[in-house]
Amino acid sequence: MDRRSFLLGTGGLALSQLLVGCAGNKQIKLNVQLLKGSVPSQVVNQFRQSLQQQVQLKFAPVEQIRDLFQHLQGWQNKPQAADEQVWTRFIPFRKSQTTAVADLVTLGDYWLKAAIEEKLIQPLQEAEVKQFKQWSALDERWQKLVRRNEQGDLDTQGKIWAAPYRWGSTVIVYNRDKFKQLGWKPQNWGDLWRDELRSRISLLNQPREVIGLVLKKLGQSYNTENLSTVPELEKELRALNQQVKFYSSNTYLEPLIMGDTWLAVGWSSDVVPILGRYPQLAAITPQSGTAIWADLWVRPTSIAKSTLSSQWIDFCWQPAIAKQISLLTKSNSPISTNIVASDLQESVRNLLQSNQEVFAKSEFLLPLATSVVQQYESLFTKIRQG
């Protein structure tokens, strides 16, 4: 899935490559590749200050989750120096084909199954997890999300493969001025079918997201495994398709800003940063629940576990630090924080203030069998072709 394999730019909080400490060969090092904008530079500086010894920290921001996944693949398949053609070693200024293997990498939860299946990452050690002060305080849903078997599927007896550090959701964003004229505001998925919105909506070009929101409207799960058990689904999808001006996963906000569409469905990581800049826009989380995404720390297979990488994960889970990550990157935290309404800009308050009732109704997009994924893709294509 392409979720956030593109970003519209996350403002001034994007972490430029940060290298802290001297470069002595014997110095302890931590090399982290992270999604750009997902951790504030202030947090990295505070981590350095919290350590008892001098260390070298290298935090390299990467634009897209897809690129981070490809780095994991490259590290797994990189040729050994002995396997290189001898003559290629003497090419002047030849660039390395891959970057140095990182100790930790950001990965989206949707990519976790593939990373495990392809053996690109290793599980966190049980003893390591027991030392994390906040692991037991994590909501059970987060613990279940990262506990997987060797095929990458959820397994309550499986190993722990990742550490979530922030999350967001699929939201509805709309033009306040247009809806003021209509005399109502969208509150839930069912509002997308209202007559006034015919050809006024842009949706994500994602079968799981679009079919999922229809399933949610019908009281079903985003992760329904047999679509034929929902007889009203195709009819509802066809009706929704009539409302859609276009489908896009990377340019759905521009027409909304320009007034060409009145409402869009998108990811909070894209939507939240623009709300302050465009006061005519507002966003809501559907009351019946929505799809949730998470950013996770994972450890590449080819890297040795380090105490410093464990310390970084634990540091991100400290309530005060988790609060900073949440506020400064305008996202949600898997750790309970004491964020109150006054901490948040009014434009993003209803998206970022914890609403346990809506969270309980929301769902992660879980791995589905290939045959089931094909069901979703086939139905989505059929509907769009009319």
From TrEMBL:
What Gene3D superfamilies does the annotation carry? Periplasmic binding protein-like II
Q: Which InterPro entries match?
A: Sperm_putr-bd (IPR001188)
Location comes to: Periplasm
GO cellular component term, pick one = periplasmic space
Q: Which SUPFAM superfamilies match?
A: Periplasmic binding protein-like II (SSF53850)
* UniProt xrefs under CDD domains: PBP2_PotD_PotF_like_1
Example GO biological process = polyamine transport
Which key words tag this protein in UniProt?
Answer: Periplasm, Signal, Transport
Q: GO terms for molecular function, please?
A: polyamine binding
Name of the protein described by the UniProt record: Extracellular solute-binding protein
> Can you name the source organism?
Amazonocrinis nigriterrae CENA67
Source organism phylogeny = Bacteria, Bacillati, Cyanobacteriota, Cyanophyceae, Nostocales
